[in-house]
Amino acid sequence: MENEKSSNNGIKIITGILAVLLVVAGAFAVKLYQQKGQQEAELKQEKNVVLADLKQMVDKYDVVIEENNLKDTELNEARDRINALILDVESKDATIASLGKYRTEVFKLRKERDFLFTQNDSLRGSNKLLAMRVDSTSYELEVQRGVGDSLTIENDKLAERVSLGSALAANKLRATGVIIRSSGKLVENSNNRRVDKVRACYTVPQNRLAEAGDRILYVQVIDPNNNVLGDNKTIDFESGSLTYSAISKFFYENQALDICENVSPRGDGFEEGVYKVNVFDGEALIAQTSFTMK
Does domain 149-293 have CATH number 2.60.40.10? Predict the structure, then answer.
């Protein structure tokens, strides 16, 4: 009897222990299930954030491309890459590893977007400036370049160049008279009797759309009597000709480049009055300024 009673007590103890373990295991399983559900919800939410960011970028590209009527450009290619990434994100289950990769891609695409938009704004600004010059300086172009009846053709050519985002530009054009010391040092001076040369300096800005390689720009300096100074040579183009004072030859590597040219007088010295300075890319006028010597 005692053995039987002792055996029953052992069974009860074991049963109790198993029941406790079962409860603990059940609670642990419920907790794991809840954690898994919470993690899946967080991953899904993060996936939706990534998709929202990508779709927002596509919308911004659409606006810029439509406003500028752009075709077959880096902006279109960048938008297509984002659309491909959206399809990839939507087709796959969200995991910590995949979301980390997508976040990295979103960061890279944002930097690329910022650069392309800045570049596009810069080109639009340059194109608007050139278009304004075409509209407002017809008479001045006729006097400065002596092309007469070919002015209309020249303006049409300039408008065509404006539409090409790969055209070079010339910024910060500045011209002045300079005295050349025996040491070679240049000293700015506005006294026409003392000046040895006219110095014209400008910057060719960065343009990643332009083709790298050997490039040529033409500098034209016109004195108060409408004479072209310096080399005073004429080059013919399809729709007209250009008389220039100096040629700027350089190797363009899609980076900003500072250029200066020194132009000699016509005869023994410089006349008193207003001098006009122009910079041309082929037939296209890309910069102009003026200064006075007296």
Answer: yes
